[in-house]
Amino acid sequence: MRSLQVGLFLILSFVGIEWRMNAGIAHQDQARASESSTQRHHTVQTSTERDVLKLPLQDPHIVILKSKRQLELYEAGSVVRSYRVGLGLNPVADKQREGDRATPEGEFYIFTKNPKSAYFLSLGISYPNIEDAERGLRDGLISRAARDAIVRAIQKKKAPPQKTALGGEIYIHGQGAQNDWTWGCIALENEDIQELYSVVAVGTPVTIKP
């Protein structure tokens, strides 16, 4: 009889220990799940909630920092937005010619806005600029007539010729900024290009730095 009582006591003790262990694990899992849910909620809030920009922007200026994969939007000399970007498949080099898949560097401006872009929305960058035209003429890539056409377009703040050997059709557009995948364009997440597209006008200066 005594041995039966001892055995029963041991069984009940084991069950009690197991129950407490399971309860502790369940509590830890619940805490982790709650913490994970809080982190996800916080991430969503920080990525989507932004102060509304007051329009029109005063002296807007777009600056792209290639090495940082970053686009900064300035208003009157102060940064009001910063977006992650993806670059061309040849991301370090300055663009030299058609097909090199490099993102250009230098001083440009927005020459067009395309609401029906294949890449969600797009802002056309005025590449090639005058420096590119002079380089292209010097290196024998373009003719004197092509160089002159580029210079005239830039002086009038129009679209420079886009089909020369220097390349063209360089845009800021959507469809993702997580890697370098374009043929020389600057890619943003769709929600970012949507905001940028809505607040900048044709003629906005664009500086692209190494």
Model description:
By secondary structure, the protein is an alpha+beta fold. The chain folds into two domains: 1-49; 60-209, Beta Barrel (L,D-transpeptidase catalytic domain-like). It is 37% helix and 20% strand. The protein has four helices and eight strands, in the order H-E-E-E-E-E-H-H-E-E-H-E. Strands 3-2-1-8-4-5-6-7 form an eight-stranded mixed beta sheet, covered by helices on one side. Helix 2 (130-138) packs antiparallel against helix 3 (144-155). The longest helix is centred in the first third of the chain and has 47 residues, at 2-48.
Keywords:
210 residues, alpha+beta, L,D-transpeptidase catalytic domain-like, 2 domains, eight-stranded mixed beta sheet, 8 strands, disordered N terminus
Which helices and strands, and how do they pair?
Blueprint: H1 2-48, E1 60-65, E2 70-75, E3 78-84, E4 106-114, E5 122-125, H2 130-138, H3 144-155, E6 171-173, E7 186-187, H4 190-199, E8 205-209
Parallel strand pairs: 1-8, 6-7
Antiparallel strand pairs: 1-2, 2-3, 4-5, 4-8, 5-6
